[in-house]
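Notes, Module 5: Reading structure tokens.

Key idea: the token line is not a picture. It is a compressed description, and you learn to read it the same way you learned to read a sequence, by spotting repeated patterns. We will look at two proteins. The first is printed below with its tokens.
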Amino acid sequence: MIGILRAFGALFLSSKTSGFNSGARQVDEQPAEEHVRGTVLAIDDEQAILEALRPSLRAEGFNVLTAGSGAKGLDMLRYCQRDVRLVVLDFNMPRLNGMDTLDFLRKINPHVKVLAVTGVDPNVLPEAFRRGVDKILPKPYTTSQLISNVNELLGFSPGTAVTKS
């Protein structure tokens, strides 16, 4: 069975598909279903950050959904909340900031893990935000720091990346 999620102008294939052609433009390939370690939703208003973390997390075996605003991220989470295991959430975003997004996110799925990424000093962040997230990763961060934090929050041991055969 082909699992298809059409959301926000993107097409995500969640299982092996041979010869399937949707007529849509080519999208980065997701990990094969038997190798998927879960879905990560990244919410950040900086497109460059989303574009940088997408291939890194995919290489680790995660399906990756990205949203350029808190509102879009919440819509995506509502649509596929059973699949999303972790949200990478920026604090400093226009309109719906990280704090407001976190409040709504917890109402939609109180058990999803949240990794906050921010250029703001963690000691300056609102106490409610610090308590509401599972971990804070200061910007700038390296790819290995991101992967390490994601793996830790999801209970994967270091070095357990999916090997493609």
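Here is the second protein, with the sequence above and the tokens below, as before.
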Amino acid sequence: MIAGRMKPRVLYVLGYGRSGSTVLGMALGQHPDLVNLGEISTLPTFVPGPTYIPPRACGCLLPLDQCPYWVGVARRLGSMAALADDGTMLSPRMGWRRYAPWLPEPSHELPRWADAATSLYRAAIDEAGAQLAVDTSKGAPRAWWLWRSGVVDLTFVWLTRGLEDVVRSQIRHGRSAVRTGISWRLAQRQVGQLVRRLERAGLEVPLIGYERLTREPRTVLSEILAHLGLPWDEAVLTPHPQHTIGGEHEGKLRGQQAIQPSGRARPPLPLKARLAVKLFDNRAAEARASGPGSDR
């Protein structure tokens, strides 16, 4: 980090896919002091070139090399190719190493990765004229290394959603209920471990339920903004994809929308899916037992 420059401020949303992080990010991104980057950990797969996975595009539905915002971010970094080589994706070694704390930290890889991630956050914030970036990547390993590196001014929230609705969403996209249950459970455990470490270090990590967000959007969003030290703004009640990376494609196509409970019919889950939910979902018990320094 260049001497004398402030660390870029980032709100990192912890959690699991299909838990509402896309709509939460799109809502917060409407605040004049915030820019919603979306799932920035997947950015290289959106950049035209060797790492690109078609037909991925910006929240504005343009390819990144045609989007005025991301072209501006790339210009600040030096080139469009720099977006695909910006350190947003963890190497496998860094991904699993945080779960083996007895091993030494990757001293050579971590500074390079952290500097690249910092440059990206700063370029994105400056291009938007914002004070703070929202990163809905959700993964605990990325959050851990950002925190350990100390080069970003991080604030966290933990977004949760009942496993039954997560499984229902994943089934609609052709994914296995059992695999979803396993990966969801592991993700909850990983995030819980990280949150305990953060709270022991004196950080507050609010637990945000997607169900409550859709029932009481004004209350929940005002709590998050207060957590960030930002004033209320009515615009956050009308989410918009803008230039977000990743997330639910249907949400991007709908454009401007409102936060409210889904009106979609909820047919009964197949037997195997119901068994997976019963086996893996103990979120409610964990959440009630949670608290600063306690197991979540």
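Summary for the second protein:
- Residues 287-296 have pLDDT under 50 and may be disordered.
- The two ends are 34 Å apart (CA to CA).
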